[in-house]
Write a structure and sequence with these properties.
Shape: globular
GO biological process, one term: DNA repair
Catalytic activity: 8-oxo-dGTP + H2O = 8-oxo-dGMP + diphosphate + H(+); 8-oxo-GTP + H2O = 8-oxo-GMP + diphosphate + H(+)
CATH topology: Nucleoside Triphosphate Pyrophosphohydrolase
Cofactor: Mg(2+)
Protein name: 8-oxo-dGTP diphosphatase
CATH class: Alpha Beta
Helix content: 10-25%
Organism: Corallococcus terminator
Largest sheet: 4 strands, mixed
Strand content: 35-45%
Number of helices: 2
């Protein structure tokens, strides 16, 4: 059986207080109610920046500016592999309202508070690298 490979992009969005945006997965999604960096799958024919902007618009009704890629990790789940790329982003409008269109909840969290939230393995790897980069 061939393993499925999924390319996923995530946004590292910081507010003016230096807190990072994390979102909670819906109860009926795969990996239900875990927290993650907002983002999603790259569709066929999309580049990473276009996919990331589309995902945040669909999930939370916000427009973003995608800046540089800050990390890349690979994670193997039992039935599929994730190629996960994280980009530094900013909201197009400062203080834009976040809507829960396809997310269960959201939080703006300081790095030292991230350990209080349960993340999927791929996001946890990214978080560990982010914490290492910050120190």
């Amino acid at each position: 059986m061939t393993r499925r490979h999924v390319r996923v992009v995530g946004a590292m969005l910081q507010n003016e207080m230096g807190r990072y945006l994390i979102t909670q997965r819906p109860p009926k999604a795969s990996l239900p109610l875990l927290w993650e960096f907002p983002g999603g799958r790259v569709e066929e024919g999309e580049d990473d920046a276009t996919a990331l902007a589309r995902e945040l618009q669909e999930e939370m009704g916000v427009r973003i500016v995608v800046l540089e890629q800050v990390m890349h990790t690979h994670h193997e789940y039992p039935t599929y592999d994730i190629d996960f790329r994280v980009f530094r982003c900013q909201l197009s409008e400062s203080g834009a309202e976040i809507h829960h269109l396809r997310v269960h909840d959201h939080r703006w969290v300081a790095l030292e508070e991230m350990g209080q939230y349960r993340f999927p393995d791929a996001d946890a790897k990214t978080l560990a690298r982010l914490l290492d980069l910050d120190h």
